Amino acid sequence: MDYESIHEYWFGPEILSSPEYFKERGNLWFGKNEDVDQYIREHFAPMLKSYEEISQIELPSDPKQFISTIILLDQMTRNAFRGQEKMYHFDPIVLDFSKRGISKHLDQDLHCLERAFCYLPLEHSEKLEDQTQCVELYATLHEQCPSEYKEYMASMLEYAHKHKVIVERFGRFPHRNEILVRESTKEEILFLQEKGSSF
Question: pTM of this prediction?
Answer without folding.
Answer: 0.96
